[in-house]
Specification:
By secondary structure, this protein is α/β, with parallel strands linked by helices. It is built from six helices and nine strands; from the N terminus they run αββααβαββββαββα. This is adenine phosphoribosyltransferase.
Amino acid sequence: MFAVENGLLGDPRLQAISDAIRVIPHFPKTGIMFQDITTLLLDPVAFKHVVDIFVDRYKHMNISLVAGVEARGFIFGPPIALAIGAKFIPLRKPGKLPGRVISEEYELEYGNDRLEMSTEAVKSHERALVIDDLVATGGTLSASINLLERAGAEVVECACVVGLPKFKGHCKLKGKPLYVLVEPTQLDEITF
Ligand SMILES: O=P(O)(O)OC[C@H]1O[C@H](OP(=O)(O)OP(=O)(O)O)[C@H](O)[C@@H]1O
Ligand SMILES: Nc1ncnc2[nH]cnc12
């Protein structure tokens, strides 16, 4: 794990979080170093560190809406939303949400996809936080910001457990702040 500029330099919780994330080479495609957060979920201490750090950061920021990106943002978003007293809104892959939805297409490290959001979920001028497990190219977060802004929300920040700095995802976020807990070591970022 590299030091990330997140105000937590020297915090031992970051090492515990980093140690709990498994790296799988060549998944789901050759050349991808897959950051597997399912092993973090097996470690309740490290999992709780993640939730605690985000809750401490966001509890006094007057956030009324936490949006989580399918699928792995559904794991971290709800406990954070509950703890800070905000509603949780799922941003879903195409065709999963009933009722009126808006959608945004985006590019990924390994393909294209689309995200959808219920229009009735958001009130105008709500202060929103976007949560996902990982940011790579920033395509997913960028689509999430667009959905929320189209519905009238103000996106305060995007937060992810893992950042892959080589993809420069923060550049796609329309100037919105990106808060990341850990970044992989150089060894973990070697592609084959
Ligand atoms: O910054 P980006 O390049 O947009 O990539 C990040 C996204 O990729 C992964 O999800 P994926 O699309 O693989 O979907 P999944 O969670 O359903 O597996 C990850 O959970 C993020 O949502
Ligand atoms: N390297 C990676 N590991 C896990 N999830 C990802 N999503 C995009 N790139 C990823």
